[in-house]
Amino acid sequence: MTGSCPKPTHTMITEIVIVRHPVSACVPVNHKVTLRVRAEGTGILSYQWFSEDEKEVPGGTQADLTIRASKTQRYVCRVNDLFHNYIFSEWVKVKVLDIDKSGLPVDWQGEPHIAINPKPQAVQHGTKLSLRCAAFGIPTPHYQWYRNGQPLLDKTADVLQIDGVTAEHGGSYLCSISNVLEERWTEPVDVDIVQPDLPPPAALTATDKIALLIGNLNYRHHPGLMAPIMDVHELANLLQQLGFRVVSLLDLTREEMMAAIDKFIQLLDRGVYGLFYYAGHGYEHAGRNYLVAVDAPQPYQTKNCVCVQRVMHQMQERQTAMSVILLDTCRKWYNQGCIPSVIKPLGPNGNTVYGYATCEDAEAYEVQDGGKSTGIFTKYLNKHILQADKVTHVLERVSEDVGKDRLVSGKQAVEIKHTMKEPRSLTDKVRTTGHTRELHLRDVCWRQANELPRKKHLTFLCGVEVEVSFSALFSNVLVAFATIKTTPDHTQDCTVILSSNPAMEDIFSRSGRSEEMDSLLFNETHNPDCTLRLCSLQKLKESVVVKVDLHYTHKDSNLRHTESLQVDIGKPLVASCKLYRENRAGKDRKTDGAKVQCMSQISRSKSPQHQALAAPHRHFTRKAECAAKTATARSNEPEENDETELQDFRPCE
């Protein structure tokens, strides 16, 4: 029997097999990392490492790749044999964390090392919750978040994010961080879900802001005042800075006051801020305040005055967003035995403010300090009025300053009455959305009372050119300026004189007043050759013609010559409103009527027409003289005829 020995067999590996892939790592900056790959195949195997941009890693031709990790990078290894077979390992990421590594052990072997723990948070309901932790590890650690000890199966990243959190997302959170070497736990943190803060209230706005300012100073039968000129002028400028449409008037009769107030009331509407200011003589009776017109006789009756509460009643009837009345006048009590007439109150609409210069049965003072006159109340009102604060808070600061003023200590104390239900301020913005039609109508009416004549350039026969320009001191006081612009060679010693037809009284020409107004008109850049003040424009019934007289000397003949030109400026400023028509209608109304007998402590030694500029810090009250002229039994008895309650009329006994 013959046999043969079995021949030994050899198994050939025809494919390359990777038996161990490299593993990802998470390490600090510049940490040394070794990536390892193990493969089996036929013959000698060769290796080539690549980075994620598919570039060969220099020197990366061994099964082990050692790098100094400077940034996060992905790597892969290609394994080749001699038969041109090849295979790639799995991609791995070396994640580099640029964070504090001071706690990392020197002999660290890759077990998870927590570098960042999550922090407790208070998160508003409906917003995003974000918790973060971070750990070094080789292999890269696995993260598993827990809330109140229960795993959150879908939360396996280093950052936990939950959108639109609700109350159920509150609790204690921690994270398990592990790899094949070890498991570590972060510190537990509390997450509180809080209700969102209430949104800030929408900024209060006005649909428009309208102001009427009246200052009475040149009384025909009562002591004159000084301060209303400057008080009204400065307050008007400040209110214009706050966005108010301002009409400012001086020296009005009772009928003119009523006509101006009627025009003012017509400009008010729903959502508008209305402000009425008065400086001048006044008094109080049975809780009603009365403003004394410049034509009030001696003694005067309430039919010669304006009732403040009736003005407020009319303002509220227009459904304004805020109605403010500021009174720099006395409040002395007169005729307390009289039964007052009644003004039917409106519903409790609120947002009304009275700012009184002084308290009940007291006087308000004006001070003449050097070259400037001002009411004590208005002095501090102008100081604070631009402040962006609730209007009553502004008036409180005014009250505090008046209380600190030694000139009126114990004599004058501001009083504030209001029904404010919203924190409205005089600085509130104007928002016209939805009210553009009403705004346009108000704009037309307001511009009518504030429209200035255009600048005129006049050329005389002799060749001299004169510019005539205009400026409004008040809505019923216009100033014309004449400035010589060009003088030919044959003319010399040119002067210009302005006059008007009809002639209009200059209420500032009296002692001490012209200087104050000149300080407002002139500056270094505006020095006209002549000025003309046109006052009491509310009385104007025809167009004004300004006459410009040029006087010059002819150089050759040395004779003095005069040439004249005229400029028709129409009915400027408030003259265009034709308040005298309102005056006629006003005479047909039923009005309050009461004879008032009062005593005053103000000096009678100086008439208003000739009152000299007072010494520094000399003060006067704004209380009108009302001395009796007759000895009749009823000379001191008030009689009130209210427009709305005539049936209740009965005289005081």
From TrEMBL:
<dbReference type="InterPro" id="IPR011600">
    <property type="entry name" value="Pept_C14_caspase"/>
</dbReference>
<dbReference type="InterPro" id="IPR003599">
    <property type="entry name" value="Ig_sub"/>
</dbReference>
<dbReference type="InterPro" id="IPR033540">
    <property type="entry name" value="MALT1_IG-like_dom_sf"/>
</dbReference>
<dbReference type="InterPro" id="IPR036179">
    <property type="entry name" value="Ig-like_dom_sf"/>
</dbReference>
<dbReference type="InterPro" id="IPR041077">
    <property type="entry name" value="MALT1_Ig"/>
</dbReference>
<protein>
    <submittedName>
        <fullName>Mucosa-associated lymphoid tissue lymphoma translocation protein 1</fullName>
    </submittedName>
</protein>
<dbReference type="GO" id="GO:0004197">
    <property type="term" value="F:cysteine-type endopeptidase activity"/>
</dbReference>
<dbReference type="Pfam" id="PF13927">
    <property type="entry name" value="Ig_3"/>
</dbReference>
<dbReference type="InterPro" id="IPR013783">
    <property type="entry name" value="Ig-like_fold"/>
</dbReference>
<dbReference type="InterPro" id="IPR003598">
    <property type="entry name" value="Ig_sub2"/>
</dbReference>
<feature type="region of interest" description="Disordered">
    <location>
        <begin position="601"/>
        <end position="653"/>
    </location>
</feature>
<dbReference type="InterPro" id="IPR001309">
    <property type="entry name" value="Pept_C14_p20"/>
</dbReference>
<dbReference type="InterPro" id="IPR007110">
    <property type="entry name" value="Ig-like_dom"/>
</dbReference>
<feature type="domain" description="Caspase family p20">
    <location>
        <begin position="207"/>
        <end position="284"/>
    </location>
</feature>
<feature type="compositionally biased region" description="Polar residues">
    <location>
        <begin position="601"/>
        <end position="610"/>
    </location>
</feature>
<dbReference type="Pfam" id="PF00656">
    <property type="entry name" value="Peptidase_C14"/>
</dbReference>
<dbReference type="InterPro" id="IPR029030">
    <property type="entry name" value="Caspase-like_dom_sf"/>
</dbReference>
<dbReference type="Pfam" id="PF18703">
    <property type="entry name" value="MALT1_Ig"/>
</dbReference>
<feature type="domain" description="Ig-like">
    <location>
        <begin position="112"/>
        <end position="192"/>
    </location>
</feature>
<dbReference type="InterPro" id="IPR052039">
    <property type="entry name" value="Caspase-related_regulators"/>
</dbReference>
<dbReference type="GO" id="GO:0006508">
    <property type="term" value="P:proteolysis"/>
</dbReference>
